[in-house]
Amino acid sequence: MEDNYKQRGLRRRLVDILIEKGIQDKKILNAFSKVPRHQFFPPEFLSHAYQDKAFPIGEGQTISQPYTVAFQTQLLNISANDKVLEIGTGSGYQCAILKALGAEVFTIEFNNKLFENAKKLLRKMGHSAHFFCGDGSMGLKRHAPYSAILVTAGAPTIPKALIDQLGSGGRLVIPVGNRKVQQMVRITRTSENKLIKEEFANFSFVPLVGEDGWDK
Ligand code: SAM
Fold first, then answer.
1. What's the whole-model pTM score?
2. What is the mean pLDDT of residues 167-173?
3. 63: closest CA among 81, 89, 82, 43?
4. Residue 63: its pLDDT value, please?
């Protein structure tokens, strides 16, 4: 899969935009400069790959805006070998960023076609994540606990199952709100019985559907 000097140059410019917007974590910026976002786009839309915007990936879904991916990733505070659950595989781009940070990634996608596409693409790119197709609104109990859980779709409320699946010190990052606007929330499990809730800026995600999400 091609990754030429022009695409690497565009990626460096994207990283500069992320720095201007306040992303400081060097490991995350390095991951963004490594992962070829254009390879997650159909060839006819390559010119959109390094703009800081979300883009349709079919099935009514989107690859998230790079700034949003960076912001959520920064809140997750990933260390190498962290066990991370991503809910909403979509294009697979966020999963590739988490892999570039050295995490072990469990990623679940509701839409079968997107699940198949992302699994095939990420494997071709050499990423060894664990792929699941199904409703992630209840998490993925059989592989819990997780060091971090990332929800990449907008939820109506914080599913209790996700909090229950956080290990000690675990972080859950989830956009919560209505179907149009959601506030980014981070829940940290500081001990077995203690949780800290922090609230951040508003974003706009496609809806989290499923048992603990919105109706389809
Ligand atoms: N992380 C993705 C990426 O890097 O391209 C972006 C994901 S897109 C904004 C949100 C995804 O969440 C969509 O692909 C959608 O099908 C998926 N989704 C929505 N509800 C879900 C659920 N209950 N379980 C798993 N995936 C879900």
1. 0.97
2. 97
3. 89
4. 95
Domain segments of the chain as ranges: 5-203
- d(CA 98, CA 102) in angstroms, rounded, equals 7
Task: Write out the two tokens for 46.
Answer: 């390559």
Ligand 1 centroid to residue 79 C-alpha, Å: 23
Quick one: which of 109, 116, 67 has its CA closest to 90?
109
CA of 99: how far to CAs of 122, 143, 172, in Å? Answer: 10, 17, 18
Does 204 participate in catalysis according to the annotation? Answer: no
**Residue bearing the CA closest to ligand 1, atom 14:** 90
User: Looking at the domain that runs over 5-203, which CATH code has it been given?
Assistant: 3.40.50.150
DSSP letters, 33-88, are HHS-GGGGS-GGGGGGTTSSS-EEEETTEEEPPHHHHHHHHHHHT--TT-EEEEE-
Q: Whose CA is nearest to atom 7 of ligand 1?
A: 90
Residue 117 Cα, ligand 1 centroid: separation in angstroms? 13
